[in-house]
Amino acid sequence: MEILEPKQGTYQLEDYSRTRETFDWEQTKEAFSWNKTGNVNIAYETIDRHVDEGRGEKTALYYSDASRDEAYTFQAMKEKTNQAAHVFKDLGVKKGDPVFIFMPRSPELYFALLGAVKAGAVVGPLFEAFMQDAVRARLEDSEAKMIVTTPELVSRIPHEELPHLETILVTGDSSKADEHEKYVSFDEKMKAASTDDSAIEWVDLEDGFVLHYTSGSTGKPKGVYHVHKAMLQQYQTAKWVLDLREDDIYWCTADPGWVTGTSYGIFGPWLYGVTNVVRGGRFSPDDWYATLQNYKVTVWYSAPTAFRMLMAAPKEILEKYDLSSLRHILSVGEPLNPEVVRWGWDVFGLRIHDTWWMTETGAMLICNYPSEPIKPGSMGKPIPGVDASIIDDDGNELGPNEMGNLAIRAGWPAQMRKIWNNEPKFNEYFAIEGWYVSGDTAYKDEDGYFWFQGRNDDVIMTAGERVGPFEIESKLVEHEAIAEAGVIGKPDEIRGHIIKAFVALKDGYEPSDDLQDNIKKFIKSELAAHAVPREIEFKDKLPKTRSGKIMRRVLKAWELDEPTGDLSTMDDA
Ligand code: PRX
């Protein structure tokens, strides 16, 4: 077995085993000002605390894209987020109200998101690629009254069909705001708002601050609700796992539309007070290497798909850049292939540290640490303060190297507190007394390292993004030519999985390349670019149960040339 030993050095988590024995989450409380003042708000701890403690002039945010290049200190972030908090409060936002943020990465996104949290709102970040149906589903479910967006995206918000939605704040000049009575100019409101901190809403540790919609294998996307107390774990993992130090320049490549982009693109690093790099625009190897080089990034958190794309790019690109500032690299979202770890070792002279967690878990749970050996291909070991295990369907813990359900002992600080408006769904995760069951299959080896084996539902992880087949299938059958649709994840070297759709056409339609393109465009324009099936296969009929459910398991078996298993429930074997 190949093992990558830790480099000599000092680390924030020096002694993993000892810390596991002695650590208690009470110890983390000392990092926060509410421990002394009693005033709780995660956005305050993220920004204002650093100003109070004399770090106001430190750079909090470096933002750049093709047309902007800006830097903001913690003091500047404090003022901007205070202004945004005033804007939300003036428009009637109350503690616990969902407020959505639907915009590409920009400094304004961070002002709005943190400002809304300061005002006591529960923020629902929406990925910029979402089209009308995806936006509608999330706003409908949450019954949100307010959303912040850009002039480019505002037309994707079908406000006529969303009776609860009262206010749409639009960034940029005020011209858009004149177009409809629900539209309000965010920039104008910001200019007029005070920078004082009187709009900060003090909350309870158990009050919500973020609502991330994510996909399951069935049903519509569900709103995963997290509370301010998550800061304990976000802070502690930023320290132990990201191994952050005072002078680090940190870059998390994830968009805040996904949980990695909030927990570790905003809260973790800023709770810890480091300088955070945000790069807007699209991925390209040149752009990413230039970002690492130009900001002298020291700690870099990204995803296997991105690493694999960098790995596939010509070597000459890499050779143009000086990446010697890098000290620590981490990965999340999909299995990190040993091959990628080896590549990282070759080209950066560094180990890539895999981390495992989920939208529902709010923060990292199973990780590799700078001070511990890495077994390439393994997700690592549970963080101190958290117990993980492999259990069977009855809740019995399994022994070393036995495959089963990856489960976490319920009650860690960043655990989701509810699924918005859907208690039965929430309870499903905790159906086995005392455990949160993740939906992943894994095993634990004799040294306590966890090894990911797969999802045990139909959720698709494609290019690091989590996609529910149901949402795509539902959209596909709205296409004029499609009678039935089944969607699966098909293994892919670069993206982990790609989305593959099987469709049966209505009478009068014939399979063709044009029709395939047309279907792809349809999904792209109505749902989201990342939900587009890369492959579409036409079938006369799809395998279904007698109750009419598409059997994705059978589609998958066909695709992979594997045995189809028990077909007794199939309608027409
Ligand atoms: O299947 C696991 C996979 O991503 C799922 C969670 O997706 P999401 O909620 O979008 O959160 C992703 C980032 C926090 C998990 O159920 N996953 C996440 N990390 C890993 C992983 N699979 C293998 N290895 C990982 N390190």
What features would you describe in this structure?
- The chain has 573 residues and is of the alpha/beta class.
- It folds into two domains: 16-443, Rossmann fold (3-Layer(aba) Sandwich); 458-560, ANL, C-terminal domain (GMP Synthetase, Chain A, domain 3).
- The protein is built from 17 helices and 26 strands.
- A nine-stranded mixed sheet has the order 2-1-11-10-12-13-14-15-16.
- Helix 3 packs parallel to helix 9 (259-271), helix 4 (74-90) packs across helix 5 (107-118) and helix 8 crosses helix 9 (259-271).
- The radius of gyration is 24 Å and the shape is globular.
- Adenosine-5'-monophosphate-propyl ester binds at residues 214, 259-260, 332-335, 354-359, 379, 438-440, 452, 455, 461, 466.
- Keywords: Acetylation, ATP-binding, Ligase, Nucleotide-binding.
- Its EC number is 6.2.1.1.
